[in-house]
Amino acid sequence: MTFRLTAPLVLSRTAVFRDETLRLDLARQEAGWPTAQLVVVDDKGRTPVDGSRLRTRATTGTTPTEGAVLLGEHEGVAYWGIRGGPDLLAGDDPADWVDLRTAAALLDPLGAGLFVTACAVLNWHDTAAFCARDGSPTRVALAGWHRICAANGHEEYPRTDPSMICLVHDGGTGPDARVLLARQPVWPEGRFSVLAGFVEAGESLEACVVREVHEEVGLAVTDVTYLGSQAWPFPRSLMIGFHAVADPEAPLLPADGEIAEAMWLTRTEVQEALAAGDWAASGARLLLPGSISIARSMLESWAAA
Q: Is-above-0.85 flag for pTM?
């Protein structure tokens, strides 16, 4: 049994054109600055949203503001991301400021792409003020996509941590086909998702799937198949989705401290839980991942196969 994702991943949608040549062209950046728009993100990862659209802010001055990151262009308008907060004098309502988890599924592709990128790059800047090699201060370059070590000129770029996420199933079809779900110890009772784990140095993605599933629940998997990927800027991950097959009769051995419990569920049970809403829903016996996560899309796609 195989399947594909049935819909675009929420955090993979974008309408922004980004190209390194834009980041190198200082004259073009300055020429476009007066008509550019700012995506302002506060230190809690929130920005103002109106329905399905980000509420951007007009630029000031004649040159790009220090600390701004060029997110890309759309229909001739340049968009930059910057840290900031509500401008009460300009009429900003702090209640309109929401985070990516809350807003992403509601945003159009332009807003989703801008918000994800702004969060990811600004999060990196927050932790990259000093060189990882010698500890000296770094300065921003390449329109926010590059930092240079002041002492020795070492170059650093936004860091992304790859993580596999895998839907383990029994390979069956029909309503009695089964999927494996697990709960982390920090999650409340009833909240379950698919398995995930970070890729180690020198490891392939497929090898990571095999290792992580075995480490977390003691199962051997086969038929590892790629599904899709999306950024997860909390703070800097890339979630790379797979599905794989395991024997539901094999004993489950949840990893101490990582997995509180794991269980096999039928397609019918998953369909019922999906219909009840995401894991923010209250009173449900089984709470599944929220709508912006790749885990949710994977489960919806498997349940519809």
A: yes
